[in-house]
Amino acid sequence: MGLFDRIGRVVRSNINDLVSKAEDPEKMLEQAIIDMNEDLVQLRQAVAKAIAAEKRSRKQYEEQESEANKWQQRAQLALSKGDEDLARQALQRKKSAADAAAALKPQVDQQKSQVDTLKKSLIALESKISEAKTKKEMLGARMKAAKANQQLQEQVGNLSNSNAMSAFERMEEKVTEMEATGQAAAELAGEGGGIEDQFAQLESGSDVDDELAAMKAQLSGSSQNQQALPESEQPSTSEASTESQTANQDAASDSEMDAELEALRKQLDG
User: Fold this and answer.
1) Model confidence at 259, in pLDDT bands (50, 70, 90)?
2) Which tens digits make up the pLDDT trace of 126-165?
3) Domains in the chain and their CATH numbers?
């Protein structure tokens, strides 16, 4: 490949790249519709000229036919009057007009065909322009939507990299740290307890101790009263037997009570 060929290819590629970058779809569509409207104007002018030419030719053709018919009638009139020479001249004029009409007939037919073709082309071009306008509106709406989406994506990308998002993230971390600190302080306060909690525990414990001491005193007084009874008041054999059974039952009850107390201790210890 020669040097000039390579230079030419580089120049063409750069020009094509500049043209591609300079192309605006909306402007290109608008310009295309403008060009099509200009073509429509020219086509309408051509159709109008063709119709005018076809009308002129048809008028000339009809005039020649009318002239031929007129001289035909005059020839018949002259012949009916016995003037053959005048009738011959009239027939010669008729022939000239008929020949002119015959010569104009193909031209009239051809012009009529051209007018019909131009009218069809005009209708087709008008339809294409209407379709192009509709497509332009649709493509314009799609292009606006695409640009809006592109701008939105760029803004979202910029927002994700902006300082505002970093500030939100820092504030979120700070709030999370404050929540953790407050939770830890609450747990420590629950474990150590304040002075109010300690006094409340002492007061509740004092009530339990007082009730326990009263129960012990009641049990001790019952035992001393039983030991202080005189011999006359000691129970008889049958009473002793009954009391023995009662004692056994009381012992069983005491065993069950001891078992329940032991279970209670285990629950309290657990």
Assistant:
1) confident
2) 898 888 888 888 887 887 888 888 888 877 766 655 565 5
3) 3-135 (1.10.287)
Instruction: Give the per-residue pLDDT at 70.
Output: 94
Report which of residues 140 and 206 the model is more confident about. Answer: 140
For the segment 52-98, what is each residue's pLDDT rounded down to a tens digit? 999 999 999 999 999 999 999 999 999 898 888 999 999 999 999 99
Q: In the 3-class helix/strand/coil scheme, how is the chain assigned residue by residue? A: CCHHHHHHHHHHHHHHHHHHHHCCHHHHHHHHHHHHHHHHHHHHHHHHHHHHHHHHHHHHHHHHHHHHHHHHHHHHHHHHCCCHHHHHHHHHHHHHHHHHHHHHHHHHHHHHHHHHHHHHHHHHHHHHHHHHHHHHHHHHHHHHHHHHHHHHHHHHHHHHCCHHHHHHHHHHHHHHHHHHHHHHHHHHHHHHCCHHHHHHHHHHHHHHHHHHHHHHHHHHHHHHHHHCCCHHHCCCHHHHHHHHHHHHHHHHHHHHHHHHHHHHHHHHHC
| Distance, CA of 48 to CA of 55 (rounded, Å) | 11
The amino acid present at 264, given as its one-letter code, is: L
The helix-helix angle for 163-192 and 84-160 (nearest 10°) equals 30
Q: Are 71 and 90 in contact, with CB atoms under 8 Å apart?
A: yes
Residues 104 and 54: beta-carbon distance below 8 Å: no
Residue type, 265: R
| Among 86, 109, 106, 105, CA closest to 97 | 105
